[in-house]
Amino acid sequence: MKTTRLLIAFVLVALGFPAIADADPPPPLDWKNCARSTDDAEGTELDRAGARCAQLTVPLDHSRPNGRTITLALSRLPATDRAHRIGTLVLNSGGPGEPTLGMPLRTRAAMKDVAARYDLVGLDPRFVGRSTPLDCGWPIGLWLRSAGATRAGFDHQVAVQRNLAERCAQRHADVLPYANTRDTARDVDLVRRALGERRISFLGYSYGAYLGAVYTQLFPGRTDRVVLDSAGDPDAWGPRALQGTEEEGERALRGWAVWAAGRHRTYGLGATPARVLATIDGIVAAAADRPLRVGRHEVDDQAAPYLLSVGSGNDRPADRAAFAATVRTLNEAAHRRPAGPGPELDGLLTFVLTSAGSPLASPAVAITCGDRAAPRDAETYWDDVQRSRARHPLFGPLKNTIWPCAFWPGQPREGATHIGNSTSALIVSATGDPATTYQGSQALHRALTGSRLLTLRGVTAHGIYGEYGNPCVDATVNDYLATGVLPAADPSCGR
């Protein structure tokens, strides 16, 4: 261990990062109640569960540890079986940009009896949630839009994305270079030190799985048990990560169409899968002709494909029913009839179409753009949109179009992290994941040579352990968390 620590210190110094010995930890954390006010529902729930919260001060620029600082917000739900305590499990729910402070409550339920042996730590990453915020003040909450049906629509998106990048630069030019996964991983290691742990365990979903992989690469030997759920290809992460996921998205939509056709009497969307898909096409065509009025919102043909993509991404009956209700509402609007969204759809539209989503979307974009450079020429994106449109007319223009990263101020401070090590890890993936594909998880499995890949076969879902409700997956992960022993071979679970 001493040799490894010295080697790490040498590498950090060579990269311009001063060596910081674990013998000189940050000041002790000041643990307090989590609720900040009487109407803080999440904080109140954490307090009732016995959790405590704290803030950790970390460098904005890790190469200048005595320079400007930011704060990280943490929650800790302590182990109740102290006699058999395994250690600390640090959590990340993904995004990037998703707050994680309340995640220990959900994770404890998934872990069942094993949870009693861990301190569960929810960490809002830098610029996310209760940590030092980064909000670009965007008039829309989600930058992810389809290019639409025409060149004029794409040109409009170019102007929108340029404006979003400029707004972010005007507000946060001084901190944007430090919004990235590598600095977030360095923060995680400072959390480890502040907690007094020689090693930590880690559970991350989606982008959180990528963060966990980067942590293992930057800080070898500092993890115990690592679970990476719904992981993508680490070499594909960045502003163009959605390229190549068109077929998985459309396969998920076709699977939902089969389900909806069997319930035509309930939802009225078509008695056959082909007719259900024709209803979808009709919605998008109507939105291209004139934005759909859905309650207080307007949905055009650049926003509609995103709603269709995210809504069809999980094959649990409750999720399919909720998406069918969304499509029914959009279909009413497409026929220019009154279409009032339910609370769930109204909340999604509020996030996507208004400034209410800016506090979450801003750090997500900043981290993505800060990890890997994006092409700067708009024609590159238009060419990709046109090539993909021929085979994937609905999701091709969505997953190949331009993002604010094309206009981001400056280039990433560091190159993207190449993942390649022998860390022990359990990777969890569904064969029908439409967001971070199964092929992406296989790529991460190859990169982490000490890992095992737990496959959930025949399922469309993103986020499996403790979320999808598969007993086989949950039991396999919990056994690994309890024993620290990976399966002898890559395990597989069915529906």
Verbal overview:
Helix content is 42%, strand content 13%. It has 495 residues and is α/β, with parallel strands linked by helices. It has a domain at 151-174 and 240-407. Strand 7 (292-294) and strand 8 (297-299) form a beta hairpin. The radius of gyration is 23 Å and the shape is globular.
What is the alpha-carbon Rg in Å? 23 Å
Largest sheet, in brief, is: 9 strands, mixed
Count of DSSP E strands?
11
Strand order of the largest sheet: 1-2-4-3-5-6-9-10-11
* Form type: globular
Percent of residues in beta strands: 5-15%
Low-confidence stretches: 1-21
C-alpha end-to-end distance: 42 Å
H/E element sequence: HHEEEHEHHEHEHHHEEHHHHHHEHEHE
Q: Total number of helical segments?
A: 17
Features:
42% helix, alpha/beta, disordered N terminus, two-stranded antiparallel ribbon
Describe the structure concisely for a colleague:
This protein has 495 residues and is α/β, with parallel strands linked by helices.
